[in-house]
Amino acid sequence: MKIVFDFGGVVFRWHPASFLARVLPHRIETLEQGAQAAAMFFQQYGGDWGLFDQGLIGANEVVRRISARTGWSRGEVETVVRAVPDELMPIPGTVVLIRDLKAAGHTLHFLSNMPEPYADHLSRTYPLEEWFESGLFSGRTKQIKPGAEIFAMAERRFEAQPQDLLFLDDHPANVDAALARDWQAFLFTDAASARRELVSRRLLNA
């Protein structure tokens, strides 16, 4: 079995509501306000941010577009865009899970919607080559989940039949897209729950 990890919210911390509240405390005072701001800012990873994720526009252009669309100052938007790498810290429980899965003999890959500047940061900063056999970043492939093409690219890159891939992602639409291609998949909520699911599938010992 080849096991495929999403990154944001699965391997690396990504909680947009608290992130925006921390980065722009003068504008966002509560998590509720943070959630509303995140929906506006990131547009559920469609719109401007989706184009940035997909590598079709760069950081300067996404800042310009979000500032124009939201009315936030360019400086505020730049602050958010610059702060994302510091938000993407490894989730300790997932790192342990990765190590345990590798020790159990599984081959691990990643499939991440990630703008290219952040992909470069993660590749430089963390031992991705130690954790994963290979992987795809949307910003480098110019394709994005939940589109079918990035899953097809992953099958080719990972040299696997769909039914031999198990995908962990924290967005239901991406899980559904994987299942539609006959991958195995489940929704990631936290490392402990994922471990229980993997044990139930007999991929890890209890």
Automatic annotation (TrEMBL):
Keywords: Hydrolase. It holds the Pfam family Hydrolase. This is Hydrolase of the HAD superfamily. The lineage of its organism: Bacteria, Pseudomonadati, Pseudomonadota, Betaproteobacteria, Burkholderiales. GO terms for molecular function: hydrolase activity. InterPro entries: HAD-like_sf, HAD-SF_hydro_IA, HAD_sf, PGP-like_dom2. It comes from the Bacteria.
